[in-house]
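Hello again, I could really use a second opinion on something today. Take your time with it, there's no hurry, and the full record follows here:

___
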Amino acid sequence: MKNKFLALVTLFSLPILALAEDTLNSGDTAWMMISTALVLLMTPAGLALFYTGMTRSKNALNTFSMVMGAFVLAFVVWIIAGYSIAFGTSENAMLQNVIGGFGNLMLNGIAWTDLSGTANYPQYVFVAFQGTFAAITVAIASGSVIGRMKFSTWMVIVALWGILVYAPITHMVWGGAGALLFDAGALDFAGGTVVHMNGGLAGLVLAILVGKRVGYNKVAMKPFSIILTAVGAALLWFGWYGFNAGSAFGANAIAGVALLTTTIATAAAGLTWMLVEWFIYKKPTLLGIASGIVAGLVAITPAAGFVGVGGAFIIGIVGALIGFFGVVVLKKKLGYDDSLDAFGIHFLAGLWGALATGVLALNDKALLWDGPLKESGDRMGQFMVQVESVLVVGLWTLVGTVVVYYVASALTGGARVDEESEEIGLDESIHGERGMSL
């Protein structure tokens, strides 16, 4: 009996022993699991509240639903096909430039004992961590079309966009050897191009294609609750430590760098936006502080593990100024209806952060990634690589989003809600629910 018991213990222990022999680091594993939970918090809580507070009360539940619906669907799509396209390996070298292939559909070929590349935590954790990035990226774009897009159309867009736009861009930037922008040496620590430029530009494209809200620039469209927006910004800031410090892929010194630079840039940006508003309008607004915080978070994201204290201050301050310009000046001048300013804050601040990384990255941090800085300290060469990356990502996002929009619109009988539904509000006309009225 004793021998049988020992045999059973040995049999069931083999997978655990095998995992231990592959040098799994429990500290790094714990940090990456916590980071995944932090990034998850950013979307169905942080971004949802941030956006919901800025929308009109009759569309509050719809706004929350657009974000939460995007998150759950995008994550499912990520598991089914997105991860394979983004991080799989294609046998065709030319195809490998753009997509990773289809060998890991439904995570086929990935065992629960596998570790993540050269890292020392489970690959399953890496899959989940990156899945939260995929989910928040498309959710960002929802902010541009709040109040006039069919929920059915939006959900089809989420599914198609995750496969045709997000996954290939992720592969090109982060997909490893053979991927177009990775091989070029593009620096994007945690998603300036992959997440924020991508989601922000997609939002603008969708906003232009679906058209302006009824009464835009003619009737007052007051925010539902600035308090909710501020709480959302605070939750985003909290979760962003998983986003940025988690992108060091371990509980290490670079994670500490990313944590500090994220805090510096965000605080500097929130203060800058507040002071600019105070100077121009003679009133510092809570919405302005919250917007500055998010602009700072976005701007530092591509540079978080690459810059020092001075670089973090510069990126945060300029990020706030650029975000303010996009929201207050550019939108009015060009006349587009970006409901909740996804383009003004995410795309523009993300663009600034991506380009600034090439100028402000410290050589000792940038040595973690291939590129001109690694080879010869060529800062101008690195800047031109950053320019190349934002152009490639911008073009792919632009074309891909247009294609996805028209396919989704055709499948759902048009993307725009009817005028009566828009006037009633999408909470009742689409969801049959009613939120608080302010």
User: Anything to note?
Assistant: The mean pLDDT is 93.
